[in-house]
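Input for the complex:
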Amino acid sequence: MENHRSYCAINLGLEVFGDKWSLIIIRGIMFEGKRHFRELLQSDEKIASNILTDRLAMLEREGIITKEGDPEHKQKIIYSLTQKGIDLLPILTQVVVWSFKYMPIDIEVNRHAKMVAEGGNEMQEAIKQQLRKEHLKS
Amino acid sequence: MENHRSYCAINLGLEVFGDKWSLIIIRGIMFEGKRHFRELLQSDEKIASNILTDRLAMLEREGIITKEGDPEHKQKIIYSLTQKGIDLLPILTQVVVWSFKYMPIDIEVNRHAKMVAEGGNEMQEAIKQQLRKEHLKS
DNA sequence: TGCAACCAGTTGCATTTTACAATTAAACAT
DNA sequence: ATGTTTAATTGTAAAATGCAACTGGTTGCA
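Predicted:
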């Protein structure tokens, strides 16, 4: 049996990704095409390798990502999003929209984010479809 | 000068509300009509009073809430959302939508959340308008 | 075959944050 | 006057995070 702080919808979501790193990792996989540990380690925010290990395990446990060996490179591991992970896109998108309105955004650094934020629902659906193609094996 | 981990839009948002408590507090003010310290302390998730104090100060510093003395009760303090705080509604809404799809939601506990999640854009606009009326003095 | 570089972590330890419980000072109600 | 309510504060233990070094295997290349 799992132990939740409460069964409020907002809380249940926050229990999974309500921390400083989880959505940063999802961003890397979702928007920056990162699929390997080493790539995710290289973010501007400088996540520590033990924290990255911990969060990847948690995200896998929660069914948001999957891991598998890279058939081309026996020492590499490929991280993929599940549908549950892909469905975090609307949350990420709204974070971007809010930050564009209120935070000191570097427009150059956030070209792609700006596109997502301004692209509306059709842009999101296009991205989701692309992600399904690249991440879901079925 | 502020010290940001990075100037990525997603990161800048997470630096403000990317933790286990900030959005729980916003939820209390936004959806449960809580305006006093004591009310916010009474959530199901049982936030500790020192953490609540800390987060309220942070949210005020970030311009997401304001505090003012209650004219009716000199020992009470009223917490209000700013427009920046009200604009967190779409993020909260998407968290609710995601949790309804993937987490073990207690439907009874989340009647209001379900309404928000299913209400679409017009529902959100109605809520925003109501919040502006109750929280913004202008 | 030998060797350096690469990969996904792991380990140990210091620092920071959070949790928990008790306490406080001012304001208020009776 | 006295007890209650309010928004906190304080002290301390526990947990999470940050940091740097290290590991055991893999790969590319000479």
